[in-house]
Amino acid sequence: MAEPGVETRTRSSVITARAAASFDPVGRSVATARAFVRDTLQGWGYSDVIDDAVVLTSELVTNAVVHAGTTADVLCLRSEDGVRVEVADHYPEREVPLQGSAESFGSPDREGGRGLLLCAALASRWGVEYTPTLKQVWFQLDLPDRPVGARSAGPVIPVELLPVADAQVRVATIQIDRTGAISSWNDDAGTLFGYAAEQVIGKPLTDFAAWPHTPGTGTGIADALLLSRWEGSYGIRDADGRVVPVYASHLRVRDPQGEPSTVCLLVRDDERAILQTPLRAPQDSTDSYSVGNRSVDPFEIFIGSPAPDDLDGLLQRTVERARDMLDADAAFLLLATDDETELEVRATTGLPSARQRFARVPVETGTGRYGSARMPAVHEDLSAVPEAVPLLNGTGMRSVVTVPLKVEGRLTGSLGVAAETPGRYSNEEALRLQFAADRIALAVESARLGELERLRRGSLSFLVEASDLLAGTLDHDQTLALMAQMTVPTLATWCAVYTIADQASDPYLSFVLHEDEERIDGLKALLSKIAPPEPVPTPGARLWAAPGEAAHQAALRSSMRSLGLGSTPALGGGIGTTLATAAAVGGETVVLPLVARNRVIGMLTLGKPSDDHFRQEILELAEDLSRRAALALDNARLYSERMAISRSLQRSLLPPGLPVIPNVEVEVIYRAAGEGNEVGGDFYDLFPIRDGAYGFAIGDVCGTGPEAAAVTGLARHALRLLAREGFGGPAVLERLNAAILDEGSRSRFLTLLYGELWPQEDGSAVLKVVCAGHPLPLRLRQDGTVEAAAEPQPLLGVMEDLELYEQTITLDPGDVLLCVTDGITERREGTRMLGDDGLAEVLTNCTGLTAGAVAGRVLRAVERFAAEPASDDMAILVMRVPEPQK
Question: Where is the signal peptide (predicted)?
Answer without folding.
Answer: none
